[in-house]
Amino acid sequence: MHISPKKNLLSSRLPDGRRYRLAGAVAVCSALLIMQGCSTPAGESDHGKSTALGAVIGAVSGAAISKSTGGKAGTGAVIGGVVGAVAGNMWSKHMEEKRAALERATQGTGIDVARTADNRIKLNVPSDFSFDKNSAAIKPGMKPVLDEIAKNLSSDVNVDVIGHTDSTGTVEYNQSLSVERADAVRGYLSGRGVSPARVSIAGAGEAQPVANNDTVSGQAVNRRVEIFLRQPAG
After folding, report:
1. Are 130 and 138 in contact (CB under 8 A)?
2. What pLDDT was estimated at residue 131?
3. pLDDT tens, 35-76?
4. Phi and psi at residue 200, in whole multiples of 5°?
5. Which CATH superfamily groups domain 93-230?
6. What mean pLDDT value characterizes the chain?
7. Residues 6 or more apart from 225 whose CB is under 8 A from it?
8. pTM value?
9. What is the pLDDT of residue 132?
10. Cα angle vertex 204, ends 201, 205, to 5°?
C-alpha cells in the first residue's frame, strides 16, 4: 500500500513528542482491529463479539488518541466507546436508568435483571411471575414488571421476547405454547404504548431448559419468558 508523503493536518500541528504518541496510538488501534477480525471466543456469537469488542476497541482508541493529542483520556474513551459500538447496541444513559428502574421493580421477586455483553438488558422471568402450566395468560405478578418496561421507554429501544416451556406435552404443543407466551407479552406491552412493530417474539419450546425437567421444581424454572431490551447504535 502506497503511503502519501503529505503530512496529516493534525499530526503536523503537534509537537514532536505528541506526534510520536499519536502514531503509537494509531498503531495500537490498528493492532486491536486486527485482533478483532481474527479471534472469536468459543461459544460467543459473531454479533455479540463484534459489539462488545468493538466498544472496547473504541474506548481504548479514544483514550489513547485523546491523551496523545493532549486531551483528557477519559473523555476520549467515552467518545471512542460510542464509535466502537456503532455496529451493534449502545449503552446509553437511558438504558442504564431503565436497568436500574427494573432492578428496583423486581427486587426480591426472583426475576433476574442483567446487562449482557452486547449491551442489552435481559430479564429472566420465572413461572412464579410469568405463566402457569399449560397457560399463556400473564400472571398478575409479572404485570408491574411489564409496566416498568413500557414506562418512558425511548422510541428507539426495541424489545425481544422469547417464550419457554417445560418438557411435559408434545414438542409441537410446547413450541406453540412458547410462542403464545411471547405473544402475550407483546400484546400487554402494546396495551401500554409500546408499538408491536418494536417487539419481536420467538418461541423456544422445551429446547432450552435451564433446570432438570424430571422434577416439578425444575419444570417450574423452565416455564419462563426472557425479555431483552436493546438500543441499536447508529
Report:
1. yes
2. 87
3. 444 444 444 444 444 444 444 444 444 444 444 444 444 434
4. -95, 145
5. OmpA-like domain (3.30.1330.60)
6. 75
7. 125, 130, 131, 142, 161, 162, 163, 164, 181, 182, 185
8. 0.64
9. 85
10. 120
Residue type, 193: G
CB neighbour class for 42 (10 Å; exposed up to 12, middle 13-18, buried from 19)? exposed
Domain boundaries, the chain: 9-84, 93-230
Measure CA 114 to chain center. 9
Helix axes 46-68, 16-38, angle to 10 degrees: 170
DSSP type of residue 147: H
Pair 114, 133: CB distance under 8 Å: no
Please, are residues 107 and 129 in contact by the beta-carbon 8 Å criterion? no
Tens digit of each residue's pLDDT (9 = 90 or more) over 79-112: 344 433 434 899 999 999 999 999 999 998 889 9
